[in-house]
Amino acid sequence: MIRWLAFLDGDGSHWLRLDDDVATARGPGLPAVADGDALIAVVPGTAVVLHWVELPPLAPAQALAAARLLAADVSGAPVADVHVAIGAPDAEGFRPMALVDRGAMAVWLAQLAAAGLDPDRIVPLPMLLPVPAGADDVTVLAASGHDHVRGQRLAFSAEPGLTPLLIGDRNAERIDLARFDAGLDASLADLPIDLRQGEFARVQAWRVEQGQTRRIALTLAAALALWLVGDAAVLFRTSLAADRAEQQLADAARTVLPRGTAIDAPRAQVAARLASLGGAGQGLTGLAAALLGALQGRPAATLQSLGYTPDTGLTALVAVPGADDGQAIAAGLAAAGVEARIGSPRPDNGVTVVDVMVRPR
Predict the structure, then answer these.
(1) Which of 94, 204, 267, 323 is 20 to 30 A off residue 30, Cα-Cα?
(2) CB-CB neighbours of 79 under 10 Å
(3) Are 88 and 192 in contact (CB under 8 A)?
C-alpha cells in the first residue's frame, strides 16, 4: 500500500512517501500521486487550535453542532469564520476538537487542487506525533522552525521559546525526524481527527464500472418491486384497519342506539339519533369521523381498537411508525374542531402504539 503525506507549510511544502507504512522517499513541493494511492495533507499546527472536549453519546451531526456551541466559548474569532472538526471519543468520552480558520482550509484545498490533488484526509502535524504513555509526558518534534508537541489530550505547535511555558512541568521527550517517520505507521493506523468534515468533506465521485450496468438495473428493479410490495402491504393494512374501524364503529353505535336496533348504517343512524335528541353533532359519528380523517393523512398509522361512551367520548388505540405521528394525529384532530389527548408512545405486541382520547369541545 502506498500513501503520500503532503506537508503544507507555505513555500516550504514537502512530501513523504510511505510504502507499507515505511518511509521510502521524500522531496520538496507537492507529490505526484498515482490513482489508487492515498494522500494525507498535513497542515501546520500553528494554524489549528486543538481542544479535548467531553460530549455525551450523540449522532455525528448532533455532536458537531454541540462542538460548534463549545467553540463559540473558546474561539478568539467569530465562530462563523471558524471551521470546527471533531474526532472519535476515547474510552472516557473525550473527543479532540479542532478549530481552524475557514479561509485557511480553502487556501490549502485550492493549493492542492492546483496540483491536481484531492486529499483523503487533512491532519494537523502535532496529531501525527507518538502519544506518550504517561499523562504527565509529552513528545516534542522540532521541525520547520517550530516545536510540535503531543501529549495525552494535548497537541499544539509553537515557537521554541514558548514551548517550556506551554508544557509546564510535564516531562518532554524530544524526537528527531527519523523517530517521527518510524512512528507514522502507528499514528496513521489510528488518526484521532480529520479536518475534512462539514463543508470541507471530500466528495466521493461514483462511476459505473464496465459490466455493472446489468447488475445495477436488476438491483433497481428488485428495489422497485420491494417498494411496490411494501406499498401494497401498507394499503392492505390500511384497508384492514378501516374494516376494523367500521366494525368497531357499529359496535359502539349499539351502545347509543335503542336496544334491538338493526345496525346497517351506523354513522347515519347515530346522526339521526343525535338529531332527535338535539345533539351538537360531535357525538360518536362526529368524533369517529374526525379521528378517521386525521388517520387518513397518516397512512402508516393504523387503528387497533375503538371505544365510545357518552361520558368519556371516543377512545382509540393507534399503531404509529414514528414518535412524531402522535403529534400529527393530535394536530389533525385539533383542525377538525375536537378536543384530543394523545398518550406517550408505548410498545404493544411488537408495535408502537399511542392511546387517543377524543371529546367534543
Answers:
(1) 204
(2) 16
(3) yes
Q: What is the pTM of this model?
A: 0.57
Sign of the C-alpha dihedral computed for residues 113, 116, 121 and 123 taken in this order? negative
Q: In whole angstroms, how far apart are CA 41 and each of 19, 44, 97, 158, 195? A: 17, 10, 18, 20, 10
Distance CA 307, CA 187 (A): 65
Q: 342, 330 in Cβ contact below 8 A?
A: yes
Residues of the chain with CATH 3.30.980: 241-360
Beta bridge partners of 101: 82
pLDDT digits (tens, 9 = 90+) for 225-252: 655 555 555 555 555 555 565 665 566 6
- Model confidence at 274: pLDDT above 70: no
Considering the domain 2-200 in this protein, what is its CATH number?
Answer: 3.30.420.380
**CATH 3.30.420.380 in the chain, residue ranges:** 2-200
Amino acid in position 344: S
* Cα dihedral sign, 130-131-134-139: positive
Task: Give the count of beta carbons closer than 10 Å to the beta carbon of residue 315.
Answer: 18
**H or E element: which one contains 266?**
helix 266-276
Task: Find the helix or strand (DSSP H, E) in which 166 lies.
Answer: helix 163-167
Beta-strand pair 14-19/22-28 = antiparallel
Strand 154-158's sheet: what is its strand order?
Answer: 154-158, 146-151, 137-143, 171-175
Per CATH, the number for 241-360 is 3.30.980
Task: Say whether pLDDT at 355 is over 80.
Answer: yes
